[in-house]
Amino acid sequence: MMWLVKSSMDTRLEGRISQRLEQRLGLSLKTQQALKILQLNTMELCEELESIAQENPLLEIERDDYILCTDGDSPIEDPTDEEPPESIYMRKERTEDEGWDFDRLETDDQCFEDIVKQIGYLVLDQNSYSILEGLLDSIDEHGILKVSIKRIAGQLSVSREDVIAVIEKMRECGFDGLFSRSKEEMSAQRDDGYYPTSGYGDGNFTKYVEPDVFVEYVEKRLVISVRDIGLALSVDDSYKSILENAEDTDAKRYLEKKMNEAVFFVNALERRKETLIAIAREIVSTNVSFLMGESQRIAPLIMVDVATKLDLSVSTISRAVKDKYISTPNGVFAMRKFFGNTDERERAMEIIAKQLKEAPEMSDADLVRLLKTRGIRIARRTANKYRNQLRLSRQ
User: Fold this and answer.
1) Are 212 and 69 found together in one domain?
2) What is the pLDDT of residue 350?
3) pLDDT tens by residue, 199-232
4) Of the residues 148, 178, 181, 359, which has the maximum number of CB atoms within 10 A of its CB?
């Protein structure tokens, strides 16, 4: 907590000096650095530690895996074994190519409209291609027209027959049901139950992620591990000699400063590991069925509850799970997904849709009470928003 005294000069003719006492909460530089390290994901942390190690001669990069079994037990070694078997609790260092080869690349995920345009460019003349572009501007995410063919023809100053000719030509190229005027018309042209746009990307870059936390099922136990790049103190004999024997010189003061910084960063990384492990334990203990693929539902955690249990602040939990991923036997998921996740929203909307189909007059307050009995807590205005979204989706 800091008390600040501000002085300000009145710009009017009478020059007066006034003082104001303010109370502000400030974070020390070290606290800010520790929070930054906690918030970084694996890729960002690697870059940050490379920079830190370059600026501090007493630090060097090392790979380190911290592994912890969820039940906390430790294996019993057999003294008769010449070479004890590898422990599932502390295993060898995980290498980059040991089953977790996530290249940090971004590739262009070509979207449906780009594919259609490429085909259209090959089979249509210039005028017909312009009509195709107008049609693509008039479809929804399923490939169904949002406006009538007559209106499209009017906007493009062409005949209705010209528009229909382009539609038929593109369907002959394999885009069955594309540019249909309704779902019923599309279903009549397709018997596979899919939309023309199904299976295509949205044109955005696909970003491959590298998990920060791993949950593995080993010998009927779930084992949690954190992989990252760590920092280790590396004080050679010349540095030791200066620190232990030299008088108060610039070199000694410089090394003492770097030593304090080095100890701080090593401890900050260890706290980051411990925090991620602790949060992962809460995720695993609450979602064993989901992580093992036995259930499709996530049991969402509440940050306030987790923070209280771990004796941490809610902001610390939020920073720890930000932009981080957890690899499980059931797939790779964003850690944030387990805290008030979209699955809960989808489940709420599913319940509301079913209820409104049976009782359209049901009030928002009644929907809130119904959802509460199903373990979902939302505000009345949220229930109203979901109701409106469902109404729009049916139009």
Assistant:
1) yes
2) 81
3) 676 555 555 678 889 999 888 888 898 876 677 7
4) 178
Q: Is residue 186 part of a domain?
A: yes
Q: Are 144 and 186 in contact (CB under 8 A)?
A: yes
Where in the sequence is the domain holding 119, given as residue range(s)?
Answer: 112-205
Q: pLDDT digit string (tens) for 347-389?
A: 788 888 888 888 888 898 888 888 888 767 778 888 888 888 7
Give dist(CA 333, CA 192) in Å, integer: 30
pLDDT tens digits, 281-316:
999 998 998 888 888 888 888 888 888 899 988 888
**Could you tell me the two tokens for 303?**
């940050």
Residue 313 and residue 377 in one domain: no
Domains: count for the chain: 3
Which of 205, 234, 250 finishes a domain?
205
